[in-house]
TrEMBL record:
This is NADH-quinone oxidoreductase subunit N. It is an enzyme of class 7 (translocase). Keywords: Cell membrane, Membrane, NAD, Quinone, Translocase, Transmembrane, Transmembrane helix, Transport. It is a multi-pass membrane protein. It holds the Pfam family Proton_antipo_M. GO terms for cellular component: endomembrane system; plasma membrane. NDH-1 shuttles electrons from NADH, via FMN and iron-sulfur (Fe-S) centers, to quinones in the respiratory chain. The immediate electron acceptor for the enzyme in this species is believed to be a menaquinone. Couples the redox reaction to proton translocation (for every two electrons transferred, four hydrogen ions are translocated across the cytoplasmic membrane), and thus conserves the redox energy in a proton gradient. One of its GO terms (molecular function) is NADH dehydrogenase (quinone) (non-electrogenic) activity. Its EC number is 7.1.1.-.
Length: 468
């Protein structure tokens, strides 16, 4: 509750700060606001409260997910210093929209009523539509925003229709009321209850880029400004999976036999579609888009094999994935900016290819190390956080007895090693005309922090459990 109030107030304050002649105050102010929200998030640790007529809940699990989205937002905002140099950019508006979107993300994490879930999804989605098309001079950005808006509107309509059917069957929008109705599964449930559940799942699976509802992801991630792609692929995905976990664990455990196999099939399709398609991408940004789809598949394993261990697995995986992804996009931003200045290319696609990383590690050891660490973590190589994230996910599948799903996931992990290592090979084993890239202190701190967190959680995975 505290972060929601603070972020709403801080976003309005940022809009007023935008009237100042100097933009230099906006970035430090936004980072300070995010730190304040992160601290306030833990004021109710080990306590459980219900707000707004029991529509919103705060407990330890919701606070941990909120901390992940706030930390991810902090890292992304810290990488956005280039806004100050772009006269056409409106950093005050961008930062305010990010803070407002976080309000929606937190609502998605802690909802106890489907109405609150819908409000949270809409706040977050509308903010993402705007940020996707924020580069008004770029046709790719305009096209991506239009595609995202149209497909997102259809998905939201389907999700809202599903909520209406669930209400018609159970007579309640609350998770407890729906769970009470679902507990009579042995006596037979209404058909519209199952249809409503499927439609609600379709809407939420669209938000997390799960196949076959993933077709918007490559174009939107590719067309959006890179800084907002990093935000979208981490914060939105974390909030989406927190919402799915809470929904299924709180209301639909009694009908697991119905949705469990459906979600397992969706998981397998998502893993195959994401990993196989990423193999033949020539653009690093589009590869990361398909990589995001594949990681949605790994996270879905924890839901398809829902158990007590799923919470721990999804929390750890979300944190590991977010850190590695933000670090990778941060390096991409520096490389594309430098390469664009060197080549004076009007085609941004040529600056986002794998060839743009040729020889990067020789002239820029820190950037090479940050990118290599990110790729190794996303590939699930030992001594990185990503390895333990996948290990925890695979453990949930074994616990549930879904060995076939585990086999698919392991095989697709092997496929993923190929396209992640393409970047490492380009940086360390190929020659390029890359000159030393100037790295601002804030960029340097973020990349070093990402390296330390990725390796630290890989060496001592129990550290996160010890803290929370």
């Amino acid at each position: 509750m505290f972060p929601i109030v603070l972020l709403s107030v801080f976003a309005v304050v940022l809009l007023f700060l935008g009237f100042l002649k100097s933009r230099s105050v906006l970035l430090p102010a936004t980072l300070l606001f995010l730190v304040a929200a992160l601290v306030a998030n833990f004021l109710d640790w080990n306590k459980t409260y219900l707000y707004f007529n029991s529509m919103l809940r705060t407990d330890n699990l919701s606070m941990v997910f909120t901390a992940i989205v706030l930390l991810s937002s902090f890292l992304v905002v810290a990488l956005s210093g280039s806004f100050e140099d772009d006269e056409a950019a409106q950093p005050a508006e961008y930062y305010a929209i990010i803070l407002f979107s976080l309000v929606g993300a937190i609502m998605m994490i802690g909802y106890e009523n489907l109405v609150m879930l819908f409000v949270g999804v809409e706040i977050l989605s509308v903010a993402m539509y705007i940020l996707t098309g924020s580069d008004k001079r770029n046709l790719r950005s305009n096209e991506a925003a239009l595609k995202y808006f149209l497909m997102g509107a259809f998905a939201t309509g389907i999700m809202l229709f599903g909520m209406a059917l669930l209400y018609g069957a159970s007579g309640s929008f609350t998770l407890a009321g729906i769970a009470s109705y679902a507990s009579h599964a042995q006596q037979g449930l209404s058909l519209i209850f199952y249809v409503g559940l499927l439609m609600l799942l379709v809407g939420l699976l669209f938000k997390v880029s799960a196949a076959p509802f993933h077709f918007w992801t490559p174009d939107v991630y590719d067309g959006a400004p890179t800084i907002f792609t990093a935000y979208m692929s981490t914060v939105v995905k974390t909030a989406g999976f927190a919402a799915l976990l809470h929904l299924l664990a709180a209301s639909f455990t009694y009908v697991y036999s119905f949705w469990g196999i459906i979600l397992a099939v969706v998981t397998a399709i998502t893993l195959i579609a994401g990993n196989v398609t990423a193999v033949y991408q020539n653009s690093f940004k589009r590869m990361m888009a398909y990589s995001s789809i594949s990681h949605a598949g790994y996270l879905l394993i924890g839901l398809a094999a829902l158990s007590a261990q799923s919470r721990q697995a999804i929390v750890f995986y979300s944190l590991a994935y977010s850190i590695a992804t933000i670090s990778a996009f941060g390096v991409l931003m520096l490389v594309t900016r430098q390469r664009g200045m060197q080549t004076l290319s009007s085609n941004p696609l040529s600056n986002e290819s794998f060839d743009a990383f040729n020889g990067l590690a020789k002239q820029n050891p820190l950037l090479g190390l940050a990118m290599a660490t990110s790729m190794l973590s996303l590939a699930g190589i030992p001594l990185t956080a990503g390895f333990w994230g996948k290990f925890y996910m695979f453990s949930t599948a074994v616990e549930r007895g879904q060995i076939w799903l585990l086999v698919v996931a392991v095989l697709m992990s092997a496929v993923g090693i190929y396209y992640y290592f393409r970047v490492i090979i380009a940086m360390y084993f190929r020659d390029g005309a890359t000159e030393p890239i100037r790295i601002s202190p804030v960029f340097r701190y973020v990349l070093v922090a990402a390296i330390i967190l990725t390796i630290g959680l890989g060496v001592a995975p129990g550290l996160l459990q010890g803290l929370f």
